[in-house]
Amino acid sequence: MRIYSFIPSATEIVYALGLGDQLCGVTHECDYQDDARHKPVAIKSLIDPAGLGQAEIDAMVAESMTHGHGLYSIDEALLREHPPDVVITQELCDVCSVSLRDVLSTLAGISKTCRVVSLKPRGLSGVLEDISTVGRACGAEPEAEELVGSLSLRIDAVRRRAEGLPLRTVFCVEWFDPVFASGHWVPEMVRVAGGHDALGLPGQDSRRVPWERVLEFDPDLIVLMPCGFGVERAVADLPLLAGNRGWLSLRAVNSGEVYAANGSAYFSRPGPRLVDGLELLAKMIHPETFGREMPAGMASRVGHGVLSSSSNTNIEGRRSPAR
Question: pTM, whole model, 2 decimals?
Answer without folding.
Answer: 0.90
